[in-house]
Specification:
By secondary structure, the chain is mainly α. The chain has helices at 13-17, 19-23, 27-46, 53-73. The protein has one domain (2-73). It is globular, with a radius of gyration of 15 Å.
Length: 84
């Protein structure tokens, strides 16, 4: 989204949901990223955390796929506000 000049206001989950459209990321991969983000939030705000080895493995795989897709985009274009 940022590559196209957009940022989500308060709805971070939208970033994960559009990965299929913006980067071609498969649903199961962006869902892993979303789940891990929610777990991170729970840890940060509630202090609760339980390590899941399979989820960690899935996260690493999804992260690598996302990284590869992002690198193919090239640098983020500079978007300038239009002057009136």
């Amino acid at each position: 989204m940022r590559w196209h000049g957009y940022r989500p206001a308060n709805k971070r989950y939208v970033v994960f949901q559009v990965l299929g459209n913006t980067l071609g990321i498969e649903r199961e991969d962006w869902r892993v990223l979303d789940k891990c983000h929610r777990i991170r939030n729970a840890f940060e705000y509630d202090g609760s955390f339980d390590v899941d080895e399979q989820l960690l493995s899935d996260l690493i795989e999804a992260t690598e796929k996302t990284k590869t897709a992002v690198e193919k985009l090239g640098p983020i274009p500079v978007h300038r506000k239009k002057e009136k």
